[in-house]
Write a structure and sequence with these properties.
The chain is mostly beta strands. It has 2 domains: about 50 residues, SH3 type barrels; about 80 residues, no CATH class. Helix content is about 15%, strand content about 45%. The strands form 2 sheets. The protein has a 5-stranded antiparallel β-sheet, with no helix packed on it. A 5-stranded antiparallel β-sheet has the order 6-10-9-8-7, covered by helices on one side. Strand 2 and strand 3 form a beta hairpin. The radius of gyration is 17 Å and the shape is elongated. About 20% of the residues are buried. The mean pLDDT is about 85.
């Protein structure tokens, strides 16, 4: 995600914190900003399932939650080669959206996926969120598959 300048968080903003756990595996937690950011660049966050809301996190480690910031990163490129497994990526991504607390409507699977014109991935589904149309894509980035929602490209026609 590209931003211009620092992101300003306010109390109540929905956020995502991505880090590494003690075991070295990636950790992703969702929650809400619980107060105003301090001058030292840290803010108190109330993570889902943690009602105390006393965790302090650097604002540079937080990301605002929106349909286009929810991604699924998988390190098995074979999932794109098998049409059945490729379509299962939609359900996995939907689970991540549920964890983030967002609402997705009218998911229409595009069969086993439509090959992207770049040749690096597939369009897997069309969906609506907050009244806007998005396309769920699975693309290859180095040794990973990244599944995320994006705005339809100019040449992709909208459903009527």
């Amino acid at each position: 995600m590209t931003t211009i300048g620092p992101i300003m968080f306010r109390s109540g903003d929905r956020i995502c914190w991505k880090s590494k756990g003690e075991d070295g595996l990636p950790v992703r937690r969702y929650g809400f900003v619980n107060g105003r950011p301090h001058r030292n660049g840290r803010v108190v966050v109330m993570f889902d399932g943690d009602l105390k809301g006393e965790t302090t996190v650097a604002t540079t480690e937080l990301q605002p939650v929106s349909i286009m910031t929810i991604d699924l990163i998988i390190d098995d490129l074979e999932l794109l080669n098998d049409p059945t497994l490729r379509q299962a990526l939609v359900g996995l991504w939907e689970s991540e959206v549920d964890l983030a607390g967002l609402v997705v409507e009218d998911i229409v699977h595009l069969g086993t996926g439509v090959r992207d014109v770049t040749g690096l991935g597939y369009a897997l589904a069309e969906l609506h969120s907050a009244g806007e149309l998005y396309v769920l894509r699975a693309v290859i980035d180095n040794d990973y598959i990244i599944v995320s929602a994006d705005i339809p490209r100019r040449f992709e026609r909208q459903r009527r």
